[in-house]
Automatic annotation (TrEMBL):
5-aminolevulinate 2 binds at S283, Y322. Mg(2+) binds at E242. Homooctamer. It comes from Nocardioides gansuensis. This is Delta-aminolevulinic acid dehydratase.
């Protein structure tokens, strides 16, 4: 007994803290890393504007002009990012989203511009979906009674894939969650001898509240929701099933989206498939961190890097993030 009447405690033999003692030790044993090559920058390009426009719910993100998009792509290539994912915001929208297949449509022009700017120095990807181009805001074509017509939409996606391929895209990203979309796109690309264009399938894409700010970014006119085609948040097995189906149809990379509320789905998909897995750190996840940081409630840069690390740790090989350019700079330091 010691003087205070407390028995002396034997020190632990195993001390995990030993490996946390210095920055060098922590670096040595870090299990996960984030590298610029693993990051993809999603970028918006809007038709008919002279100056880039801010997006109020996504501070720091812009709707680009064709010119400012080229510069952003050049910067992304210079920083060694893995890719850029392009979204078009057309001046006019219609029921069939005709701007999506028009070679002079804003997204097709932007693909052309960016490929001309960066060549093979950056993987150029395109969002392959109708919602940015339709006046009703749905990801597909509608039947006369307003339902999304799955199989008719497949034909539209196939045409869109060809337009993107003609514009020079490296990788198309079908994000509409129609059944059979990957097969339809792969078939159309191959029949037109675009066998080298790869497919990043938004496989496990959930009907999520975290897409909110994106709808402002693309000026979506959607009323109602996407719950008949995007996945129901309670379902994880279904996410794995969707990824496997997409691989069977020819997907080269599969994606889980959003990322933070679905880290378990990223892990399950990573463990179940043998192709690269991507995750999309979406607009609402970006906005939450930016809003809290603007209030001084969290350390912004630390929160950004911790977010990206957690998505990588969950199993994502590739991360789409609005912080891609900034994160690449932070990682260089
Ligand atoms: C559909 C698409 C969406 C996003 C990417 N592609 C919106 C949706 O499905 O409602 C969301 C991305 C984000 O929130 O950052 N074209």
């Amino acid at each position: 007994m010691s003087e205070e009447g407390v028995a002396p405690v034997a020190g632990p033999v195993v001390r995990p803290r030993r490996l946390r003692r210095t920055p060098a030790l922590r670096r040595l044993v870090a299990e996960t890393s984030v590298e610029p090559r693993q990051l993809v920058l999603p970028a918006f390009v809007r038709e008919g504007i002279r100056e880039p426009q801010p997006i109020s719910s996504m501070p720091g993100v812009l709707q680009h002009t064709r010119d400012s998009l080229r510069k952003a792509a050049a910067e992304a290539a210079e920083l060694g990012l893995g890719g850029i994912m392009l979204f078009g915001v057309p001046e006019t929208k219609d029921a069939t989203g005709s701007g999506a297949v028009d070679p002079a449509g804003i997204l097709n022009l932007a693909i052309n511009d960016v490929v001309a700017e960066v060549g093979d120095g950056l993987t150029v990807m395109s969002d392959l979906c109708l919602d940015e181009f339709t006046d009703h805001g749905h990801c597909g074509l509608l039947t006369p009674d307003g339902e999304v017509d799955n199989d008719k939409t497949l034909t539209a996606y196939a045409q869109m894939a060809l337009a993107h391929a003609e514009a020079g895209v490296d990788m198309v990203g079908p994000s509409g969650m129609m059944d059979g979309q990957v097969a339809a796109i792969r078939g159309a690309l191959d029949a037109a001898e675009h066998t080298g264009v790869s497919i990043l399938a938004y496989s496990a894409k959930y009907a999520s509240a975290f897409f909110g700010p994106f709808r402002e970014a693309v000026e979506s006119s959607l009323e109602g929701d996407r719950r008949t085609y995007q996945q129901d948040p309670p379902n994880a097995l279904e996410g794995v099933r969707e990824a496997i189906l997409d691989i069977q149809q020819g997907a080269d990379v599969v994606m889980v989206k959003p990322a933070l509320a679905y880290l378990d789905v990223i892990r399950r998909v990573r463990d179940a498939v043998d192709v690269p897995v991507a995750a999309y750190n979406v607009s609402g996840e970006y906005a939450m961190v930016e809003a809290a940081a603007a209030h001084g409630w969290i350390d912004r840069e630390a929160a950004i890097l911790e977010t990206l690390t957690s998505i990588r740790r969950a199993g994502a090989d590739v991360v789409l993030t609005y912080w891609a350019t900034e994160a690449a700079r932070l990682l260089r330091r």
